[in-house]
Design brief:
Number of helices: 4
Radius of gyration: 25 Å
Number of strands: 23
Distance between the termini: 42 Å
Structural class: mainly beta
Length: 372
């Protein structure tokens, strides 16, 4: 059980000792990235960090959404065993406990740790109490061999104390990273598109239509993407311990719109020619449909790719087409139609046969889908 004792050998409530280049906030926790680790992604339930490089390439460190204290600490960790699992699909993951929780104390603060396996790989959970909150962290990795398990344990004993040493919590007085809002001149939805070029797995060049949407409120808030609450301004109380990183506050300084996201990230848009230049695209004001609006018409889209084989004459293509129809008196209907391979992707350049004439003349990609 050396992994439990070694990982607890740090001050749970220690303040940061040095300034870090990258600081993030998720829910109640404000933390600096441990050396050698990167911010990977977050959803509304947890944040994931991953190592830059090193022996534990497939290790992932999880920071869970803060929970109110309910029950004892050990039972909190045990009942949280599904927190970081993939529960979607036909074969959801399951965690198998390797033993009961271990309680260790650091400066009078209990830390409950419990080891699980998920499809043979280790998952170590660590839970502790911060005032009236339970905090949960976890490390997943590869442990199929004794060498892999030893690497996993060393990674945890090095990384977890480094994380705790610089982490502070809003519930005990730490100031949220997002600056308080100030009234600003921007409001409403702003939208822009661009073409993204990349090389596919078949080594063929591909171009995708991308889009970006920002919503601003004159109270000083913004949202990057489609706000979950629509055009209603966010509740300031929910942003003190944010789990939706796309919200933030903005400041207009000269021709710059400085964005401060709720998770600590920052960005800048430039005001020019009536738009907001974000580098890849320029956003312009758009008028959203009012709530309850009825729409009628057809939206169609298509995708095609080509690929080459070993021989000079070995070529092929695949394509798909999707149609969405909207009416005022019936629910939306739609279908996706895969198409077989052909000698050339150009064979599918024409619109589907059942596409209405009005939609045939529409510019392809005129209504692109947002990608993030």
């Amino acid at each position: 059980m050396r992994i439990f004792r070694a990982a607890a050998a740090t001050a749970l409530l220690a303040m940061p000792l040095t300034a870090a280049a990258e600081t993030y906030q998720f829910s109640n926790a404000i933390f600096e990235l441990p050396p050698g680790w990167d911010h990977l992604r977050a959803d509304s339930n947890y944040q994931i960090l991953s190592p830059d490089d090193g022996p534990c390439d497939y290790c992932y460190f999880y920071i869970a959404r803060s929970q109110p204290v309910l029950g004892d600490l050990a039972s909190f960790v045990t009942r949280s065993q599904r927190q970081f699992l993939d529960l979607d699909g036909s074969d959801p993951e399951e965690a198998v406990a390797e033993g009961p929780p271990q309680i260790v104390y650091e400066r009078g603060h209990p830390i409950a740790m419990q080891m699980f396996t998920v499809d043979g790989d280790p998952l170590l959970l660590a839970g502790f109490q911060i005032k009236d909150r339970y905090e949960l962290d976890g490390l997943r990795g590869n442990g199929r061999t004794p060498e892999d398990l030893d690497t996993f344990q060393k990674t945890f004993t090095q990384m977890f104390p480094a994380y705790l040493e610089t982490t502070r919590y809003v519930s005990i007085g730490a100031a949220p990273l997002m600056p308080p809002p100030q009234p600003g001149p921007l409001k409403g939805a702003w939208f822009g598109t661009w073409l993204d070029q990349s090389i596919g797995m078949d080594m063929m060049m591909r171009m995708d239509m991308r889009s970006s949407l920002f919503v601003f409120w004159p109270e000083g808030y913004f949202h990057d993407g489609t706000p979950p609450g629509g055009m209603t301004p966010p509740d300031p109380a929910t942003l003190r311990e944010p789990t939706i990183a796309e919200y933030g506050t903005y400041r207009v300084t000269g021709n710059e719109v400085r964005l401060a996201y709720a998770n600590g990230e920052t960005d800048t848009l430039t005001m020019e020619d009536g738009g907001l230049n974000g580098g890849r695209t320029t956003l312009y004001p758009v008028k959203p449909l009012p709530d309850g609006s009825m729409i009628e018409g057809t939206i169609s889209s298509s995708y095609a790719s080509g690929f080459g084989g070993v021989g000079a004459m070995s070529t092929g293509a695949s394509a798909t087409a999707a149609i969405r129809r909207f009416t005022r008196t019936a629910p939306m209907t739609g279908k996706a139609r895969p198409r077989p391979s052909a000698a050339s992707a150009m064979a599918w350049a024409s619109p589907p046969a059942d596409t209405p004439p009005a939609a045939r003349t529409a510019m392809p990609g005129a209504i692109p889908s947002r990608t993030g």
